[in-house]
Amino acid sequence: MAPTLALVGATGAVGTVMIDIMNGRQEWPWGEVRLIASQRSAGRHLTVRGVEHTVVALSPEAFDGVDIAMFDVPDEISAEWAPIAASRGAVVVDNSGAFRMDDDVPLVVPECNLDRIHDRPRGIIANPNCTTLSMMAALGALHRTFDLRELVVASYQAVSGAGVAGVERLYAELAAVVGKGVGVRAGDVREALEAARLPLEDSPFPAPLALNVVPAAGSYKGDGWYSEELKVRNESRKILGIPDLRVSATCVRVPVVTTHSLAVHATFASEVTVEQAREVFEAQPSVVLMDDPADNVFPTPADVVGGDPTYVGRIRQALDFPNTLDFFVCGDNLRKGAALNTYEIAEALAR
Ligand code: 2RA
């Protein structure tokens, strides 16, 4: 019998992208589809592949008969409800941060470690954070061939990583500064936001985003590190299966709506040429090369947003580090960075 698929968080930002992905899939291995959300959203009607579904409220019974449950909800909801879904017999694919570093929960990127989906003692499989995910298809391909030893990363993260509130805040800030001649004197952007009744206390970000970049992504964790930077380190190690990989990340929020970018400085066991790296990227179906700087070809968020692949450009052999490649990647943080990777895991389970 075709398996039953549940989507928990069906009405949220990532849930909405998930339905879009489900609508676009060629293969369709599922029988029943069940859309689950909070009590507040229960009763809403959503269409999946031309069939109208009524959203049901999150409850233990909602998981009865479900084979695979994809969770796109905040950490605390997943922490409570994923084990309940698993206890009712569903395999959970969870997109929150609640289980990613749990030793009994595999952290899966299909291009890197799909075989791990079978080793799930808690009945839960975790989806990585979008920042890590945005580079993983490219980095995993290089690692398989050249043996990654060190990773130094700077991220340029879109505001939709902070949810709908992040997107609304950026648009409001841009409206408050455009045509005001600000951005030329220290503090004038903050003044323009205050004048537009956009106090920073109401923002999901700790500094103005309009006409700015903010070197603080996620929550502050002490010793100088933000949560996004620690996630890049810990998750990269777990996904690639290199527990002692040397990693250092600086994560920066930028005024981009959707699509995270990363400048990657990756060091391998021996020298890797740009040509060798290109061959590896070209052989990876989910990586698209955009790398002809002489002709202004490189990935930018504005040019690739909405796409499923990991876009790679600016590939260089680092001048003073022969074993090191520098490159720039862009990935849609809501698609491969969240919904698509989760769906790909569910699809692999169904197969
Ligand atoms: C962010 N990576 O960009 C986070 C979202 N999970 O804020």
From TrEMBL:
InterPro entries: Asp_semialdehyde_DH, Asp_semialdehyde_DH_beta, NAD(P)-bd_dom_sf, Semialdehyde_DH_NAD-bd, Semialdhyde_DH_dimer_dom. GO terms for biological process: 'de novo' L-methionine biosynthetic process; diaminopimelate biosynthetic process; isoleucine biosynthetic process; lysine biosynthetic process via diaminopimelate; threonine biosynthetic process. Phosphate binds at R100. Catalyzes the NADPH-dependent formation of L-aspartate-semialdehyde (L-ASA) by the reductive dephosphorylation of L-aspartyl-4-phosphate. Homodimer. HAMAP family: ASADH. This is Aspartate-semialdehyde dehydrogenase. The lineage of its organism: Bacteria, Bacillati, Actinomycetota, Actinomycetes, Pseudonocardiales. The gene is asd.
